[in-house]
Amino acid sequence: MVTAYDATFARMLEEGGADALLVGDSLGMVVQGHDSTLPVTVDETLYHCRAVARGTTRAHLVGDMPFMSYQLGGDDALRNAGRFLAEGGMHAVKLEGGTDVAPTIRRIVSAGIPVMGHVGLTPQSVHAMGGFRVQGKTSDQARRVLADACAVAKAGAYAIVLEGIPAWLAGRIRDALDIPTIGIGAGPDCDGQVLVCYDLLGLSAGKPPRFVKQYEEFHARGLEAMRRFRDEVREGAFPTEAHSYGLRAPDSDKVVDLPGAREARRRRSARG
Ligand code: KIV
Q1: How much distance in Å is there from the Cα of 16 to the middle of ligand 1?
Q2: pLDDT of 195-212, one tens digit each?
């Protein structure tokens, strides 16, 4: 699984073999430039969901429910979850949390909406966690993460993201659950893996976190491409005939001068 936020990337990632695309609320950070996922709204996420859905034909599509779109539970959470399928073209929703959100997961699932869970480092709780920190390092914390994962599975989630936990704990959780675990910063003992597409493509500037593997260097390549475009435009090397329509008039003697053209030419040559 990888994240996607627009049709062009979704098409490329699906063609490249992604089984599932997650329209993650990480869009708040990588697309919108915020320093957390908290400001992202349902309407903004749905805009990206529709774009991703239009760009794909095969992949399983998961829409990430943003902060405060499900935390109140009840009708509010169910109505918002429904919008991801009805308006966003998604096949499932993902929401963060464990025992606290289990009743909400149960309610959404019983309405026929598949739910993917997400435990461990849950970015919507960044302030409660004191930052983006690995969770489950002490045995108390580890027991809590395991209990959260079990509660999510018991509530009817069909899969679960394990984020930012020690690899050994992810292995224990996988062994304890009947549903697939999808890891990010959770080591190799998960059934699947997910990365933010900007991270795996090397699109973000700066040093990536330890759990990220950059399979490309799109940021560096993008800089290089932009600089070449700028230089070629300045040097007059772009566009050439190959990238132009009708560079030369078919028969210059017969071309009628447009009003003002002769005067403009005179001013131009006077300027040198
Ligand atoms: O929003 C997101 O991109 C996510 C993944 C990192 C799992 O939740």
Answers
A1: 19
A2: 999 999 999 888 999 999
